């Protein structure tokens, strides 16, 4: 089976709809066809200052949500990044192969460091994409299911894999991004020119998977739509409406054309009302199951520890080869 790896940061108390539709939903599908590794990337979550109590809680909330949306620890390897020390170890090696200018060109780093101020932004934020490359390359992943915003980091990962292979001999699989076009960029409900994002979206612009269903329904109903009244898909002219149609299709499995036909002669309000219901029916069981997993943190930790052990078996094999190829002495 081909292998996939992906990760998600535990930096919020809930996944948002962009995380789910852009990435996590595909993770669930891929566990059926691929040898799948998924990690909660807590090392990535400490680049901008954090509270230890909050981080620990959010790491469990992230894992519980992944189980609640359908990841099955029998079918995939679900683990927490910091429990596999090889991630940080390989990252150092890759840091040394990355140009300073190359890392400086990462747009996510540029955006975030501009926001925080160059003096305050951490070196961890700077090397963030290189740690991400280590996550992927350790597992020899063939494909990496992510949203559009991760494309540049994937390119860097491919470059680093090729560079290492050229310098030290074929070691890493060069991974492909696995980006599903329709849902690759879910936009903010209040500002369809930006992606839905935990850092940039206003509370009204973002749907949190674990929110009160009534609250999410309200956000859908007050989403910004476009002038005109006719319902059709046109991301250029009608970005707000098209985003709602994308969400509607993704949550129901219905085709755009079918929806457009069903809403012929109806208004935006009708569509929003129905979508609000679709969304709350979708989110309700996820919310319930997440809370069930969180009610038993000892069991949850056990599942993660078992995943971590499986992950480590793969990661340590790759790291051993890497250390050998670059000329480190064999461990005592
Ligand atoms: P993170 O935690 O920001 O987001 C998790 C996943 O959600 C996707 N995503 C979106 N997709 C569509 N529309 C949106 N509005 C939207 N917002 C977020 C992201 O593309 C991502 O796939 N750097 C990564 C985490 C990471 C990782 C890895 C990913 C660390 N190591 C190794 C893949 C492989 C990140 O910050 O994701």
From TrEMBL:
Role noted for this protein: Catalyzes the attachment of tryptophan to tRNA(Trp).
Keyword hit for Aminoacyl-tRNA synthetase: yes
Short sequence motif 'KMSKS' region: positions: 195-199
Entry binding sites for L-tryptophan: 135
Name this protein carries in UniProt: Tryptophan--tRNA ligase
Keyword Lyase: no
Binding site residues for ATP: 9-11, 18-19, 147-149, 186, 195-199
Highest taxon of the lineage: Bacteria
Record localization: Cytoplasm
Subunit structure: Homodimer.
GO cellular component: cytosol
Record GO biological process: tryptophanyl-tRNA aminoacylation
UniProt family annotation: Belongs to the class-I aminoacyl-tRNA synthetase family.
Gene3D superfamilies: HUPs, Tyrosyl-Transfer RNA Synthetase
PROSITE patterns assigned: AA_TRNA_LIGASE_I
EC class of the enzyme, as a word: ligase
InterPro entries named in the record: aa-tRNA-synth_I_CS, aa-tRNA-synth_Ic, Rossmann-like_a/b/a_fold, Trp-tRNA-ligase, Trp-tRNA-ligase_bac-type, Trp-tRNA_synthetase
Enzyme Commission code(s) on record: 6.1.1.2
GO molecular function: ATP binding; tryptophan-tRNA ligase activity
NCBIfam families in alphabetical order: trpS
Underlying gene: trpS
Matches recorded under Pfam families: tRNA-synt_1b (PF00579)
Keywords noted in UniProt: Aminoacyl-tRNA synthetase, ATP-binding, Cytoplasm, Ligase, Nucleotide-binding, Protein biosynthesis
Catalytic activity: tRNA(Trp) + L-tryptophan + ATP = L-tryptophyl-tRNA(Trp) + AMP + diphosphate + H(+)
């Amino acid at each position: 089976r081909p292998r996939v790896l992906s990760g998600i940061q535990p930096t919020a108390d809930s996944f948002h709809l962009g995380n789910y539709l852009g990435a996590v939903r595909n993770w669930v599908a891929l566990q059926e066809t691929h040898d799948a590794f998924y990690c909660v990337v807590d090392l990535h979550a400490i680049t901008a200052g954090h509270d230890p109590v909050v981080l620990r809680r959010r790491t469990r909330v992230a894992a519980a949500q992944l189980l609640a949306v359908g990841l099955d620890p029998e079918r995939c390897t679900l683990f927490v990044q910091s429990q596999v020390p090889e991630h940080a170890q390989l990252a150092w090696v890759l840091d040394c192969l990355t140009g300073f200018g190359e890392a400086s060109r990462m747009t996510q780093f540029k955006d975030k460091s501009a926001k925080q101020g160059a003096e305050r932004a951490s070196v961890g934020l700077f090397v963030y994409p290189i740690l991400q490359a280590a996550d992927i390359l350790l597992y020899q992943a063939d494909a990496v299911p992510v949203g559009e915003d991760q494309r540049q980091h994937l390119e860097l990962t491919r470059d680093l894999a090729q560079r290492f292979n050229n310098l030290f001999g074929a070691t890493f699989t060069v991974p492909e991004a696995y980006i599903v076009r329709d849902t690759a960029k879910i936009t903010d409900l209040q500002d369809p020119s930006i992606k839905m994002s935990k850092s940039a979206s206003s509370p009204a612009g973002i749907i949190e998977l674990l929110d009160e269903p009534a609250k999410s329904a309200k956000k859908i109903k007050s989403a910004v739509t476009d002038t005109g009244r006719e319902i059709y898909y046109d991301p250029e002219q009608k970005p707000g409406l098209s985003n709602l149609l994308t969400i509607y299709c993704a949550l129901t499995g219905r085709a755009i054309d079918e929806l457009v036909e069903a809403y012929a002669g109806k208004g935006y309000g009708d569509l929003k009302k129905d979508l609000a219901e679709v969304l709350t029916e979708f989110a309700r069981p996820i919310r319930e199951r997440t809370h069930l997993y969180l009610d038993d943190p000892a069991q949850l930790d056990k599942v993660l520890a078992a995943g971590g052990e499986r992950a480590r078996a793969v990661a340590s094999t790759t790291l051993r080869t890497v250390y050998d190829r670059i000329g480190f002495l064999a461990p005592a």
